[in-house]
Amino acid sequence: MKKVFERPKSMKKNIFHYCAGCGHSIAHRLIAEVIDELGIRGVLIGVLPAGCAVLAYNYFDVDMIEAQHGRGPATATGIKRALPDRVVFCYQGDGDLAAIGIAESFHAANRGENITVVFINNAVYGMTGGQMAPTSMLGQRTTTSPGGRKSLLDGYPIQVSEVFSLLPGTSYIERCTVNSPASILKAKKAIRKAFQCQIDGRGFSLVEILSPCPTNWKMTPIESCRWIDEVMSKTFPLGVIKDLPEIKKKGDKRHDG
Amino acid sequence: MNKVLMQGNRIIGEAAIRAGCRFYAGYPITPQNEIPEYMAERLPEVEGGVFIQSESEIAAIHMVIGASAAGVRAMTSSSSPGISLKQEGISSLAACELPAVIINMMRGGPGLGNISPSQGDYFQATRGGGHGGYRTIVLGPATVQEMADLTMDAFDLADQYRIPAMILADGMMGQMMEPVVFKEPKPRVYPESLMMRGAGEGKSKIIRGLILDPLEMEEHNWTLDRKYRVIAQSETRHEHYKTEDAELILVAYGTAARIAKGAIKRLREAGLRVGLFRPITLWPFPTNELREFAKKSENFLVFEMSTGQMLEDVRLALQGYARIGFHGRPGGVVPTPIELTNVVMHQYDRKGGVIEQYQ
Ligand SMILES: Cc1ncc(C[n+]2csc(CCOP(=O)(O)OP(=O)(O)O)c2C)c(N)n1
Asked: Among partner residues B52, B62, B67, which is closest to A71 by beta-carbon distance?
């Protein structure tokens, strides 16, 4: 009989600790499939965040280092500069990337570090129990915005992908989601493209994934998937946000000096 | 061997490169800017050399973590306020047992303070500095030659014990020029099995500081503690100067020890038999070595450019064995040998010993 579905080789045989309906496990699987397809397991180093994915080394069978909260892109920079021929990816949540680690992310992007960031935007701090994130929706109730997020007090949801796309150092940025079979396939394509972008030496690539968090959104998994379509993706529109053509080594304006 | 005349900060940069440092990340802050400037110039000239001006001291230390995990000798440098920012990463290095070298050219504090020399970061450096209960090896050079030697040694010690090692000096040492002879670096001893470079065909590695299981967490802390005990037993270093006949021994490190030597010359000319005990390793502190000197002299006077930090380590070593006096000037002013000479003349009486014992 032909096997049509199996565990990716770069995944360990452990059961995910994630809540039912959580997007992290889907994102993990997609990354692992891409690692297998690109054949980069042996040259890959993953940098993990503080956040729900802090234990992702229990699932990925690749070299992994855990960064302090938000510092992943700095640690990834250190690894990639030390080992330019390795593939380095950084897995981050929205609190990790857009709040405490915004400086490290922004500057890694601005330097055009040749790394790939997988950015899980679930509009809350999942691990610490559902507090407001920089990406929480206006009006969204969280444990630290019990009356709903108010722009006057809390500012606005940060559109990381759009902001980063303005930086000349970034080469490929796409926003996806994992709330339906079709969107999952799209997300996988985006992740693959982002890794390929790094392999081709094109600089900073980022895939933002709008990711359901039923537990902290206080919704069922199905309601969560619907909320992404009906609410979240209105503030965070899906699609390719930036895709620079391959860098021509000589005479490219992005390379001065 | 050729002697070179170079400024302390630049010497540190050159010594690091000779020791095999191939990664430097840092953020400008006076009085150590010549270190990143030197590295920016020199590192790209050596094979594999990477220099990054990071967006902050926090980013710098986390870049160093990455490079260290990748198996490259890595260093960062800063001065007091920047070292405070690095503590998160230093704690991580300690937790993950990764080697790295950190330079602190101390300046006046607390807060933004000022840029004049100080020894106000002794507590921060020798007590771990960040959260969680850990140690870093701390070396306190007193000459530019020693800055070269200890920087090279710091890389070896960091590798040997898989621990962050710090050079604790101040703006005066960093700006000072003295002739230096670089010693031959030792070949690096650091197993490839510890380097995170991609799993290849083999088993994947994990470097982590998070240990959720309480018993496992405790065991990890005991493992670190056992390592710290080994270091404390085997890596202490000190210098003693004119102690053979000393009735009074000054205890000072770094810049303060230089000032103390100047004072000792004057005091001896005035007929007082004064010597110096100079800790070179600030952690581990040479406790037993210092206590040995209590057999020779009953009188000790601690001299620091702070209101009394190393003083606590001296008291742990000597309390109950000898009389301990103290003179300190907190950051902002560099005391002179004449000042210290006068202090000793006042505080010490040949018959009564140290009169003003520190309470
Ligand atoms: C310096 C520091 N501050 C706070 C925390 C606590 N903390 C851990 S994860 C987290 C937020 C995680 O949220 P996010 O990045 O959105 O990831 P998620 O858990 O939702 O996947 C926080 C605040 C920490 N580990 N370190």
From this structure: B62
